[in-house]
Design brief:
This protein is mainly beta and 188 residues long. The chain is built from 2 helices and 15 strands.
Length: 188
């Protein structure tokens, strides 16, 4: 992905605003996928001798991977950067962008280097880390404002050792009502 850079010097356009506009959505994408570790986001199908194009998350960056041949397994996907340069208005050639991408290497990267291991069976994917529970878990929250409400129609609950739907049609003074919130349990 191409990311603009602004080095000291006079660029032919005002870069700060463009950098801010570019960085905001990239930051969201990078941070979202980086919380799941180094993984394949989409694509990257592995065959006997190749890996398809796709998107990966490596070292906190979302990176494109071009379709490539694989000569031996395991292979490793690592992040790489290409410096794109152009002459600035002051006549000095400087970086104008950094194109970050994933590439294949065949030697296991050094300790501390982020990578994805690709075997003949594929590579860890984004959804491998997310498992949805077969049923919902429930949380009950206390209803704060009962004014002019019909607890039964609202679907409120009472608690007397167990949560049960109330049959009250008007709020009873001194009684606490609860609303049920459901959510999926996600395991990483």
């Amino acid at each position: 992905m191409k990311r603009q850079v602004q080095l000291p010097g006079v660029k032919k356009w005002s870069g700060e605003d463009l950098l801010d506009l570019q960085n905001e959505p990239l930051k969201v994408v990078d941070e979202f996928f980086s919380q799941w570790g180094d993984c394949v986001i989409c694509g990257c199908e592995v065959t006997e001798q190749a890996i398809g194009a796709g998107l990966v998350s490596i070292g906190g960056y979302t990176l494109p991977l071009a379709a490539s041949e694989i000569t031996v397994f395991p292979a490793y996907l690592v992040a790489d950067t290409e410096h794109i340069q152009r002459e600035y208005a002051d006549g000095v050639v400087r970086d104008i962008a950094l194109r970050r991408f994933a590439k294949i290497v065949y030697s296991e990267p050094a300790a501390g280097t982020a990578f994805i291991e690709v075997t003949a069976n594929g590579a860890p994917g984004f959804f491998d880390g997310i498992k949805r529970a077969p049923e919902y878990d429930h949380v009950y929250e206390e209803v704060e404002d009962v004014t002019d409400k019909n607890p039964s129609e609202e679907g409120w609950y009472e608690f007397d050792g167990v949560y049960e739907l109330t049959e009250d049609t008007v709020p009873t003074i001194g009684k606490t009502y609860y609303i049920q919130k459901s959510y999926y349990v996600m395991t990483i």
